[in-house]
Amino acid sequence: MKAYNRYFNVNRDTWNKKVAVHKESEFYFVEDFKKGKTSLNIFELEALGDVRNKSLLHLQCHFGQDTLSWSRLGARCTGVDISDQGIALAQQLNAELKLDARFICCNVLDTSDFVDEKFDIVFTSYGVIGWLPDLQPWANIIAERLKPGGFFYIVEFHPIVWMFDYLEKKPVLKYGYQQKEVIYEEYTGTYADTQSTMVSKEYGWNHGLGEVITAITSAGLHIEYLNEIDASPYKVFPDMLENDEGLFEIRDKLYPLLFEIKATKI
């Protein structure tokens, strides 16, 4: 993966800048979070169930809100992220909230160089795999870090969503479903604060569901289910409708917005 280091370095710099913006944003509601509000959504809560006394590895954890939310529910958590500023804030929140989560700064693809523990659960969610050029090393890391009988769970934006350029007011179909070429975007603001003056510079890759499934199974994991979901906790496009459950849907429901996979290590 050394060939991709220049992309990773640019992304790391952008995520470091995002931390300062995100911790002050309404999107991440840090003060309410400190008072006990969870950052977890219905999909991952239902999928993981009772996590008390389970060991949990959270990959690409940003500044650790989900990791700490799982910790509050009784899991023994480790969070990993490429952003040193994100990990520093996660550690600060962990200490302030008197929780016992552990946070490690590294590229997710290097996790096994920094973590040798095996876990009951490996978890990741919402906007994670698009930062990776090749999913097989990622899936191999997941399998390495799972105990026999443990499971991996991902809930992620559907590959169709990533085909759109949504930086303009109206989303435009622009990118390939499983585009191999790197995608570069540069824009002002972030998804958490579109009015911010920070400049986001990002390199990403699109991965179709076939690639995701093949990577996970090739790593030796058994897929329990794949669900495609036509609602999202996040308003990923303009002009979306909020349903009775507080989730967002596109008006015509022509394509799913999320997918979720649960896979076990035999």
Oligomer: single chain
Structural class: alpha/beta
Order of helices and strands: HHHEHEHEHEHEEEEEHEEEE
Task: Give the second-level CATH assignment, the architecture.
Answer: 3-Layer(aba) Sandwich
- In angstroms, what is the radius of gyration? 18 Å
How many angstroms separate the termini?
28 Å
Number of helices: 8
| CATH fold-level name | Rossmann fold
Domain Methyltransferase type: 58-154
Keywords: Methyltransferase, Transferase
Protein name: Methyltransferase family protein
GO molecular function, one term: S-adenosylmethionine-dependent methyltransferase activity
Write the layout of secondary structure elements.
Blueprint: H1 5-22, H2 30-34, H3 42-48, E1 55-59, H4 65-72, E2 76-81, H5 84-96, E3 102-105, H6 111-114, E4 119-125, H7 135-145, E5 146-157, E6 164-165, E7 172-173, E8 183-188, E9 199-204, H8 209-218, E10 221-229, E11 241-242, E12 248-249, E13 258-265
Parallel strand pairs: 1-2, 1-4, 2-3, 4-5
Antiparallel strand pairs: 5-13, 6-7, 8-9, 10-13, 11-12
Helix pairs in contact: 1-5, 7-8
